[in-house]
Amino acid sequence: MSGLMAGKRGLIMGLANDKSLAWGIAKKLREHGAELAFSYQGEALAKRVRPLAEQLDSDFVFECDVSDMDALDDAFARLQERWETLDFVVHAIGFSDKNELRGKYLDTSLDNFLMTMNISAYSLVAVARRAAAMMPEGGNILTLTYYGAEKVIPHYNVMGVAKAALETSVQYLANDLGPDNIRINALSAGPIKTLAASGIGDFRYILKWNELNSPLRRNVTIDDVGGSGLYLLSDLSSGVTGEVHHVDAGYHVVGMKQEDAPDI
Ligand code: NAD
Q1: Would the pTM count as exceeding 0.95?
Q2: Of 16, 161, 179, 226, which has the fewest beta carbons less than 10 angstroms from its beta carbon?
Q3: Is 261 contained in some domain?
Q4: What ipTM goes with this model?
Protein backbone atom coordinates (compact mmCIF):
# COMPACT_ATOMS: atom_id res chain seq x y z
CA MET A 1 0.00 0.00 0.00
CA SER A 2 1.59 3.28 -1.08
CA GLY A 3 -0.60 5.38 1.22
CA LEU A 4 -1.47 7.86 -1.54
CA MET A 5 -5.00 8.01 -0.08
CA ALA A 6 -4.13 7.30 3.57
CA GLY A 7 -6.30 9.30 5.95
CA LYS A 8 -8.78 10.20 3.21
CA ARG A 9 -12.49 9.37 3.41
CA GLY A 10 -14.79 9.24 0.43
CA LEU A 11 -18.21 8.26 -0.86
CA ILE A 12 -18.58 5.96 -3.86
CA MET A 13 -21.94 6.44 -5.63
CA GLY A 14 -22.98 4.03 -8.38
CA LEU A 15 -21.60 0.64 -7.40
CA ALA A 16 -23.94 -2.04 -8.81
CA ASN A 17 -21.68 -5.12 -9.02
CA ASP A 18 -18.08 -6.21 -9.59
CA LYS A 19 -18.26 -5.15 -13.26
CA SER A 20 -19.07 -1.51 -12.35
CA LEU A 21 -16.57 1.23 -13.17
CA ALA A 22 -17.11 2.35 -9.56
CA TRP A 23 -15.71 -1.02 -8.41
CA GLY A 24 -12.49 -0.54 -10.41
CA ILE A 25 -12.02 2.87 -8.81
CA ALA A 26 -13.03 1.80 -5.28
CA LYS A 27 -10.57 -1.14 -5.30
CA LYS A 28 -7.69 1.11 -6.31
CA LEU A 29 -8.58 3.76 -3.72
CA ARG A 30 -8.75 1.17 -0.93
CA GLU A 31 -5.46 -0.39 -2.07
CA HIS A 32 -3.93 3.04 -1.48
CA GLY A 33 -5.41 3.51 1.98
CA ALA A 34 -8.73 5.35 1.49
CA GLU A 35 -11.66 4.74 3.84
CA LEU A 36 -14.84 4.24 1.81
CA ALA A 37 -18.61 4.65 2.10
CA PHE A 38 -20.98 3.37 -0.59
CA SER A 39 -24.42 4.48 -1.74
CA TYR A 40 -26.62 2.42 -4.04
CA GLN A 41 -30.02 2.78 -5.67
CA GLY A 42 -32.86 0.47 -4.67
CA GLU A 43 -32.93 -2.20 -1.96
CA ALA A 44 -32.46 -4.92 -4.63
CA LEU A 45 -28.82 -3.81 -5.02
CA ALA A 46 -28.08 -3.91 -1.28
CA LYS A 47 -27.30 -7.63 -1.28
CA ARG A 48 -24.71 -7.13 -4.04
CA VAL A 49 -23.14 -3.94 -2.71
CA ARG A 50 -22.75 -4.92 0.97
CA PRO A 51 -20.43 -7.92 0.36
CA LEU A 52 -18.36 -5.86 -2.10
CA ALA A 53 -18.02 -3.06 0.46
CA GLU A 54 -16.96 -5.66 3.05
CA GLN A 55 -14.18 -6.82 0.72
CA LEU A 56 -12.87 -3.25 0.95
CA ASP A 57 -13.25 -3.20 4.77
CA SER A 58 -16.35 -1.00 4.78
CA ASP A 59 -19.67 -1.46 6.55
CA PHE A 60 -20.78 2.07 5.66
CA VAL A 61 -23.39 1.36 2.99
CA PHE A 62 -26.72 3.11 2.41
CA GLU A 63 -29.40 3.71 -0.18
CA CYS A 64 -29.64 6.94 -2.19
CA ASP A 65 -31.66 7.61 -5.33
CA VAL A 66 -30.03 10.75 -6.76
CA SER A 67 -33.22 11.87 -8.49
CA ASP A 68 -34.79 12.39 -5.04
CA MET A 69 -33.43 15.53 -3.36
CA ASP A 70 -34.72 14.43 0.07
CA ALA A 71 -32.90 11.12 -0.31
CA LEU A 72 -29.71 13.05 -1.15
CA ASP A 73 -30.15 15.22 1.94
CA ASP A 74 -30.63 12.09 4.06
CA ALA A 75 -27.57 10.41 2.57
CA PHE A 76 -25.29 13.36 3.31
CA ALA A 77 -26.78 13.77 6.79
CA ARG A 78 -25.96 10.11 7.39
CA LEU A 79 -22.41 10.62 6.16
CA GLN A 80 -21.99 13.61 8.44
CA GLU A 81 -23.21 11.65 11.45
CA ARG A 82 -20.27 9.29 11.13
CA TRP A 83 -17.67 11.45 9.38
CA GLU A 84 -17.58 15.15 10.11
CA THR A 85 -15.77 15.91 6.88
CA LEU A 86 -15.38 14.29 3.48
CA ASP A 87 -12.32 14.22 1.21
CA PHE A 88 -13.76 12.90 -2.04
CA VAL A 89 -16.83 11.66 -3.92
CA VAL A 90 -17.02 9.36 -6.93
CA HIS A 91 -20.18 9.97 -9.00
CA ALA A 92 -20.52 6.91 -11.28
CA ILE A 93 -24.19 7.24 -12.17
CA GLY A 94 -26.12 7.35 -15.41
CA PHE A 95 -29.55 6.24 -16.53
CA SER A 96 -31.92 6.45 -19.50
CA ASP A 97 -34.84 4.42 -20.84
CA LYS A 98 -33.14 1.70 -22.87
CA ASN A 99 -35.87 1.88 -25.51
CA GLU A 100 -34.43 5.28 -26.42
CA LEU A 101 -30.80 4.07 -26.50
CA ARG A 102 -31.39 2.64 -29.96
CA GLY A 103 -32.79 4.12 -33.13
CA LYS A 104 -32.75 7.87 -33.67
CA TYR A 105 -32.07 10.73 -31.24
CA LEU A 106 -34.77 12.55 -33.20
CA ASP A 107 -37.35 10.32 -31.50
CA THR A 108 -36.34 11.14 -27.89
CA SER A 109 -39.41 11.76 -25.71
CA LEU A 110 -39.61 14.77 -23.42
CA ASP A 111 -40.15 12.60 -20.34
CA ASN A 112 -37.07 10.50 -20.99
CA PHE A 113 -34.99 13.54 -21.99
CA LEU A 114 -35.78 15.18 -18.62
CA MET A 115 -35.26 11.99 -16.62
CA THR A 116 -31.93 11.23 -18.33
CA MET A 117 -30.68 14.80 -17.78
CA ASN A 118 -31.82 14.72 -14.16
CA ILE A 119 -30.20 11.41 -13.17
CA SER A 120 -27.14 11.57 -15.43
CA ALA A 121 -26.22 15.29 -15.34
CA TYR A 122 -28.10 17.36 -12.73
CA SER A 123 -27.35 14.81 -10.01
CA LEU A 124 -23.67 15.80 -10.19
CA VAL A 125 -24.58 19.38 -9.31
CA ALA A 126 -26.85 18.23 -6.48
CA VAL A 127 -24.14 15.91 -5.13
CA ALA A 128 -21.35 18.50 -5.50
CA ARG A 129 -23.29 21.11 -3.51
CA ARG A 130 -23.91 18.73 -0.61
CA ALA A 131 -20.38 17.27 -0.72
CA ALA A 132 -18.74 20.71 -0.78
CA ALA A 133 -20.52 21.59 2.47
CA MET A 134 -18.54 18.72 4.08
CA MET A 135 -15.19 19.78 2.58
CA PRO A 136 -14.09 22.79 4.66
CA GLU A 137 -10.40 22.23 3.90
CA GLY A 138 -10.91 21.30 0.24
CA GLY A 139 -11.75 18.08 -1.52
CA ASN A 140 -12.12 16.23 -4.76
CA ILE A 141 -15.01 15.04 -6.93
CA LEU A 142 -14.85 12.65 -9.88
CA THR A 143 -17.57 11.78 -12.39
CA LEU A 144 -17.68 9.32 -15.29
CA THR A 145 -18.40 10.31 -18.86
CA TYR A 146 -18.15 8.90 -22.40
CA TYR A 147 -16.96 10.03 -25.84
CA GLY A 148 -20.60 10.08 -27.01
CA ALA A 149 -20.67 13.59 -25.44
CA GLU A 150 -18.19 14.84 -28.05
CA LYS A 151 -19.04 12.88 -31.21
CA VAL A 152 -22.08 10.99 -32.43
CA ILE A 153 -22.03 7.34 -31.39
CA PRO A 154 -24.99 5.52 -32.95
CA HIS A 155 -27.62 4.53 -30.32
CA TYR A 156 -26.06 6.59 -27.50
CA ASN A 157 -28.57 9.36 -28.30
CA VAL A 158 -29.95 11.28 -25.32
CA MET A 159 -27.23 9.86 -23.09
CA GLY A 160 -24.65 11.67 -25.27
CA VAL A 161 -26.53 14.93 -24.76
CA ALA A 162 -26.66 14.30 -20.99
CA LYS A 163 -22.92 13.52 -20.92
CA ALA A 164 -22.22 16.79 -22.78
CA ALA A 165 -24.20 18.60 -20.05
CA LEU A 166 -22.27 16.62 -17.43
CA GLU A 167 -18.88 17.58 -18.92
CA THR A 168 -19.83 21.25 -19.13
CA SER A 169 -21.14 21.05 -15.54
CA VAL A 170 -17.69 19.82 -14.51
CA GLN A 171 -16.19 23.01 -15.96
CA TYR A 172 -18.68 25.34 -14.27
CA LEU A 173 -18.45 23.46 -10.97
CA ALA A 174 -14.63 23.54 -11.14
CA ASN A 175 -14.82 27.31 -11.39
CA ASP A 176 -17.34 27.61 -8.54
CA LEU A 177 -15.51 25.22 -6.21
CA GLY A 178 -11.90 26.11 -7.05
CA PRO A 179 -11.67 29.01 -4.55
CA ASP A 180 -12.59 26.48 -1.80
CA ASN A 181 -9.77 24.18 -2.93
CA ILE A 182 -12.25 21.60 -4.23
CA ARG A 183 -11.27 19.95 -7.50
CA ILE A 184 -13.70 18.24 -9.87
CA ASN A 185 -12.87 16.23 -12.97
CA ALA A 186 -14.47 13.77 -15.36
CA LEU A 187 -12.96 10.50 -16.49
CA SER A 188 -14.07 9.63 -20.03
CA ALA A 189 -13.89 5.84 -20.17
CA GLY A 190 -13.85 3.71 -23.30
CA PRO A 191 -16.66 1.15 -23.63
CA ILE A 192 -16.74 -1.57 -20.94
CA LYS A 193 -19.37 -4.28 -20.56
CA THR A 194 -21.41 -3.31 -17.48
CA LEU A 195 -25.07 -3.40 -16.46
CA ALA A 196 -25.62 0.18 -17.68
CA ALA A 197 -23.78 -0.46 -20.96
CA SER A 198 -25.92 -3.51 -21.73
CA GLY A 199 -28.88 -1.12 -22.25
CA ILE A 200 -27.16 0.56 -25.21
CA GLY A 201 -28.20 -0.69 -28.65
CA ASP A 202 -25.55 -2.78 -30.47
CA PHE A 203 -23.04 -2.32 -27.63
CA ARG A 204 -21.07 -5.39 -28.78
CA TYR A 205 -20.34 -3.64 -32.09
CA ILE A 206 -19.13 -0.51 -30.26
CA LEU A 207 -16.80 -2.68 -28.13
CA LYS A 208 -15.37 -4.50 -31.15
CA TRP A 209 -14.96 -1.27 -33.15
CA ASN A 210 -13.02 0.37 -30.30
CA GLU A 211 -10.84 -2.69 -29.82
CA LEU A 212 -9.87 -2.76 -33.50
CA ASN A 213 -9.48 0.98 -34.03
CA SER A 214 -7.97 2.46 -30.86
CA PRO A 215 -4.22 3.23 -30.94
CA LEU A 216 -3.58 0.57 -28.28
CA ARG A 217 -5.74 -1.93 -30.27
CA ARG A 218 -7.61 -3.05 -27.17
CA ASN A 219 -10.48 -2.09 -24.91
CA VAL A 220 -9.89 -0.64 -21.47
CA THR A 221 -10.73 -2.48 -18.22
CA ILE A 222 -12.15 -1.30 -14.92
CA ASP A 223 -8.59 -1.57 -13.59
CA ASP A 224 -7.40 0.95 -16.21
CA VAL A 225 -10.24 3.21 -15.07
CA GLY A 226 -9.31 2.60 -11.42
CA GLY A 227 -5.68 3.65 -11.93
CA SER A 228 -6.62 6.92 -13.60
CA GLY A 229 -9.36 7.47 -11.01
CA LEU A 230 -6.73 7.13 -8.28
CA TYR A 231 -4.56 9.73 -10.05
CA LEU A 232 -7.46 12.19 -10.38
CA LEU A 233 -8.59 11.70 -6.76
CA SER A 234 -5.14 11.83 -5.18
CA ASP A 235 -2.63 14.64 -4.72
CA LEU A 236 -0.78 13.32 -7.78
CA SER A 237 -3.17 15.48 -9.83
CA SER A 238 -3.15 18.44 -7.41
CA GLY A 239 -3.03 21.01 -10.22
CA VAL A 240 -5.85 19.49 -12.27
CA THR A 241 -9.48 20.59 -12.22
CA GLY A 242 -12.28 21.02 -14.76
CA GLU A 243 -10.65 18.35 -16.92
CA VAL A 244 -12.14 15.55 -19.04
CA HIS A 245 -9.47 12.85 -18.91
CA HIS A 246 -9.81 10.12 -21.55
CA VAL A 247 -9.13 6.53 -20.49
CA ASP A 248 -10.05 4.90 -23.77
CA ALA A 249 -6.87 3.29 -25.16
CA GLY A 250 -6.48 6.52 -27.15
CA TYR A 251 -9.63 6.04 -29.22
CA HIS A 252 -10.62 9.74 -29.09
CA VAL A 253 -7.57 10.84 -31.13
CA VAL A 254 -8.39 8.60 -34.10
CA GLY A 255 -10.19 10.13 -37.10
CA MET A 256 -10.86 7.07 -39.26
CA LYS A 257 -10.83 3.28 -39.42
CA GLN A 258 -7.37 1.73 -38.96
CA GLU A 259 -5.85 0.18 -42.10
CA ASP A 260 -5.24 -3.09 -40.24
CA ALA A 261 -8.80 -3.30 -38.83
CA PRO A 262 -10.85 -6.08 -40.42
CA ASP A 263 -14.48 -5.44 -41.35
CA ILE A 264 -16.92 -6.35 -38.58
P1 NAD B 1 -23.26 0.25 -13.73
O2 NAD B 1 -24.58 -0.24 -14.19
O3 NAD B 1 -22.37 -0.68 -13.03
O4 NAD B 1 -23.41 1.58 -12.87
C5 NAD B 1 -24.41 2.54 -13.10
C6 NAD B 1 -24.91 2.91 -11.72
O7 NAD B 1 -25.85 4.00 -11.78
C8 NAD B 1 -25.66 1.75 -11.04
O9 NAD B 1 -25.05 1.46 -9.80
C10 NAD B 1 -27.07 2.28 -10.83
O11 NAD B 1 -27.68 1.79 -9.67
C12 NAD B 1 -26.76 3.78 -10.72
N13 NAD B 1 -27.96 4.58 -10.86
C14 NAD B 1 -28.83 4.67 -11.91
N15 NAD B 1 -29.86 5.49 -11.61
C16 NAD B 1 -29.63 5.94 -10.34
C17 NAD B 1 -30.32 6.81 -9.46
N18 NAD B 1 -31.48 7.38 -9.80
N19 NAD B 1 -29.79 7.04 -8.24
C20 NAD B 1 -28.63 6.47 -7.85
N21 NAD B 1 -27.94 5.65 -8.63
C22 NAD B 1 -28.42 5.38 -9.86
O23 NAD B 1 -22.54 0.77 -15.07
P24 NAD B 1 -21.19 1.60 -15.32
O25 NAD B 1 -20.91 1.41 -16.76
O26 NAD B 1 -20.18 1.25 -14.31
O27 NAD B 1 -21.67 3.11 -15.14
C28 NAD B 1 -21.05 4.03 -14.25
C29 NAD B 1 -20.81 5.36 -14.97
O30 NAD B 1 -19.82 5.17 -15.96
C31 NAD B 1 -22.05 5.90 -15.69
O32 NAD B 1 -22.08 7.31 -15.55
C33 NAD B 1 -21.75 5.53 -17.14
O34 NAD B 1 -22.41 6.38 -18.05
C35 NAD B 1 -20.24 5.77 -17.16
N36 NAD B 1 -19.53 5.19 -18.29
C37 NAD B 1 -19.67 3.87 -18.60
C38 NAD B 1 -18.98 3.37 -19.71
C39 NAD B 1 -19.14 1.91 -20.10
O40 NAD B 1 -18.84 1.58 -21.25
N41 NAD B 1 -19.57 1.04 -19.22
C42 NAD B 1 -18.13 4.18 -20.46
C43 NAD B 1 -18.00 5.50 -20.11
C44 NAD B 1 -18.70 6.02 -19.01
Answers
A1: yes
A2: 179
A3: no
A4: 0.99
